[in-house]
Amino acid sequence: MSHNTFTNFLTGTLRRRLMISAALMYAVLMTIFIAVLVLKRQAILAEQQAGNATALAKALAASFVRNGAFCAVFAVIAGSIMAWIFGAFFTRRLKVIQSAIDSVKSGKQDAKAVLKGNDEAAVLAEGFNQMLETLRQRSREVTQLNESLEQHVTERTQQLECTNKELEAFAYSVSHDLRAPLRAIDGFSSFLEEGYAERLDEEGKRLLKVIRANAQKMDRLIIDLLTLSRTTQSELNFIKIDMRSLVEAVYKEVATEAVQQQFKFTLESMPDVWGDPVLLKQVWVNLITNAIKYTAKSPVKEIEAGGFIKNGDRVYFIKDSGAGFNPDYAGKLFGAFQRLHKADEFEGNGIGLATVQRIIHRHEGRIWADSQVDAGATFTFSLPSKSRTS
């Protein structure tokens, strides 16, 4: 209950009690006055029977005036005095509650309104004290929860720091200790293939090529996993990016001269955006590489990229005329190691789009895809005009 609401309640209650008190006093006094008039009337009737009606009528009129004036003045004075006495008493009791409310407002949570009796003020004080006790109990519970939450956050932060250190150590181990044997396998297989080719039959040569291909595939997978790991660990460096120039540079970098001659690449206007240039470049590298890969076997080889502003966000898309995918499985696209095509149809390890999604999420954006089988695919992502973390 707010201060104004409580004050209005007190004022209304006091006014009603004063009106009731005055009405009761007036009713009592007027009853006495009417009783006196009835007795006078009976006396007059008795005198009339004795033959002195004129004198008695005059006396009755004078008595009416005197008694009426006296009773009216007495009723007003007595009623007002009684109303003032009762109002002062009731107001003092209500001020006890008001004082407790002011104490609570000033921060004294142990305030209490002490009133004895069974009137409205005592009932209100009791309810007020119960409410305060409930609030104090809730406050203690909230304090305990906050302390528990802070302890939980501290523990989780420590665990996260330990996990990050372990991931850094793992990334270092992967990039050095695990890739070195793979490069050795690929290198020695190459030497064996070149130096002892005349001693190997066709099956031996085929097996060596399988060994080299799998070693290179494993090395590529490790590199992609490291890239995925770095997207969540590296610190973001936000600058204003000319997105159209970035996409144009990426296409020229990932598309060979032969690919550029086969493909029709359309680059529309794109709004600038604030973001990490290294990570957003990786987004376009993965998206353009995928578009080229899944369109390479199509009779029509077209890729279109563009962007626009919608509701303050920067929205970008890349559309191809390639193999597409079943839209029922679109939710699996951005999961690590998730693939919607067989490995013998299109090479890949299912890491590229997972990396793209993590980068977009770190920029507080979102990404989605639309497609139909053999009808191409469109990947769209939106970024805020300027990230809250920038």
Strand order of the largest sheet: 2-4-5-7-6
Q: Report the strand count.
A: 7
What is the alpha-carbon Rg in Å? Answer: 47 Å
Uncertain segments: none
DSSP helix fraction: 55-70%
Write the layout of secondary structure elements.
Blueprint: H1 3-49, H2 53-105, H3 120-195, H4 202-233, E1 239-241, H5 243-254, H6 257-262, E2 264-267, E3 273-275, H7 277-295, E4 302-310, E5 313-320, H8 352-362, E6 366-371, E7 377-383
Helix pairs in contact: 1-2, 2-3, 3-4, 4-8, 5-7, 7-8
Description:
There is one protein chain. This protein is α+β, with helices and mostly antiparallel strands and about 400 residues long. It has 8 helices and 7 strands; from the N terminus they run H-H-H-H-E-H-H-E-E-H-E-E-H-E-E. It has helices at about 5-50, 55-105, 120-195, 200-235, 245-255, 255-260, 275-295, 350-360; strands at about 240, 265, 275, 300-310, 315-320, 365-370, 375-385. A 5-stranded mixed beta sheet has the order 2-4-5-7-6. A hairpin with a 5-residue loop joins strand 6 and strand 7. The chain starts with a helix and ends in a 7-residue tail after the last strand. The mean pLDDT is about 75.
Structural features:
5-stranded mixed sheet, 66% helix, alpha+beta, 390 residues, two-stranded antiparallel sheet, 7 strands, 8 helices
